[in-house]
Give the backbone structure.
Amino acid sequence: MLGARRLGEAEVKYQVNVIPAPRRFRIPKNIQDELKGALGKSMISRLKKEAVECPVQGKVVPFLLCYTCKNFVRRYKGRVYCRGLPL
């Protein structure tokens, strides 16, 4: 993780690496339905196998839950840029 940086208008507090998950995560149905409009079925299936160590929650969470978080800014080259605001 690095210090705060300016990325466009959003202030980025954390940069977190995406890690391969030891197992496939179960994602709630309502989140999957929400993501089907933005991502394809095969992309969702692939992303279920990835995780991040969330600096806000202090635990490993599935990437798809991170993607739907209000703190998510972007994912670029295997890193997630996070605002780090309290949930």
The beta strands are 5-7, 10-12, 14-20, 50-54, 59-62, 72-76, 79-82. Residues 29-36 form the longest helix (8 residues).
